[in-house]
Structure formats: C-alpha cells, structure tokens
Amino acid sequence: MSGLGLALLNSLDIGLLLFIIAVGLNIIFGVLNVINFAHGALYMLGAYLAYTCVAVVGMPFWLTLVVAPLIVAALAVLIDRGMLRFVYQREISDSLLLTFALLLILNESVRLIWGTGIHIIDPPALLQGTFELSGGMTYPIYSAFVLAMGVLTLAGLWLLFNRTRAGKIMRAAALDREMAQVLCINTKLVITGVFAFGAWLAAVGGVVAAPMRAIDPGMGDKIIIESFIVVVIGGLGSFPGALLGAIVLGLIHGLGGRYLPEVNLVLPYIGMALILLIKPHGLMGRGRSA
Description:
By secondary structure, the protein is mainly α. Helix content is 71%, strand content 2%.
C-alpha cells in the first residue's frame, strides 16, 4: 500500500504541475479561439530564465518565481500586438501555423542564447530534503511545494473567474466578443491581457519545474504535447476540464510508470484516443459553433 500511496502522490504532483501549464493554453483557446503552439516554448523560456536568475545572477528562487513569469508575460504582450492580432479574425488554422512558427523561432533563440547543453538548478534551501508520511513513507518537500502551487493556482483561478470583475469580463469576451464591445468593454485590451496571462501561467510552470527537471531546448516540445493531451482529454476551452485532464494524465504517468513501465510512453496517447472515441469533445467539452 505504501508503494501505491507514493504512486498516487507522484501522480497528483505530475498532474497539478501539468494543470498549471495546460490551463493557460485552455484559457487562451477559450477566450481567443487560438490554439497556441508556442505555449510550450514560453514554458521553456520560464525555466531558462529561472536558471539565469538563480544560477547566473544569484537571485533568490522566490524572487525568480515573480520576475521570470513577468518577463515572459511582457514578451507575450509584444507577440500579441506585433503578430497575433493580425490573425484573430481569420481561420483557426492561421493562428495555429503562426504560433507553430513562433515555437520554432523561440526554440532556436533559446539555443542561440543558452546553447544546447543541459542546465540544472537546485531547489531553495527551504524546500530541499524529504519529510516522513504515515506508514514510514518519505516524500520530497519540493514535490509537496508543487502540490501546494497547483492547489493555489486552482483556487486563484476560481476566484479570478467567479469573484472578480476582470474574470467576468474575460468570460463575457469568451462568450460573445461583439456583445462585449457593445457593452463598452475594450476587447483588444482583454485579448492582449488573456494571452499574456496564459503565457504567465506557462512561465510559472517552467520556473516551478526547473528544479525538478533537466532544462534543455527540447523541454518545450514535450510539454506542449502533454498540454494538448490534457486539454483534449478534459475538453478544449473548459477550465474544470483542464484540471480533470491533468489529473487523468498524471495518473497515467504515475501509475503507468510504476506498474507498466514498458508501455508507459504510449499510455497517454492510448488514453487520449479512448477518450476521443467515447467523448469527441473531451470529458467536459461541449464543442464550439463554427
């Protein structure tokens, strides 16, 4: 049972980290109707900025957790105003191709700036080591921090969309952008803010993941695939679906890695295929009108 308990904790750890990253992708799609292929590159950029701030500049991790996502969000504002605003009214395939081009540009930029080697950073001293759970199990303190970050993100997003004026404006823009304009809502500002907010969430995920995973130029490609699996399982544009999809994928990774390591790499794709066969719009998706 102790082995199963640790596997479930690890699954939740993986799932909530994926939720932090994938929910930004889902919010961007839900409000802007844009499938942002560059989301993984923004996550990667957050991790590389964390490495630079902590290992090169000597900035405390906690300050890095604030600074790095803000830098990525500022870059996202420039991307939105300089490129994406020209394709919002076009077919969704146009934005997909543009964001894929941005993914390639950001990937090559990272290689030029930081090189192709692998970088690592240590968790802050407060989060190093392990603690003991019931039954003699030990669990990394940093993994518990990741769990807490996931729960805080979930609670913060719920409060944002249900208890704040900004969240209600975003929901209004997602439901009917033309009606929002009639109500004197600055939809251009909302669109830019949503895209920057989604990028900020991706970068937060990158900073949080940096002490757990090797930082390399391919990390963004892997995470965007996992993020797409999350939103496909949960349902494109569904905030609760992003949470459910992330937990499902976390369970596939955590339990599959422990009990079915030989086929663990293909289990997420099998799970996604089964979900699509049963519910084509995802577990909590409702489809979108043309």
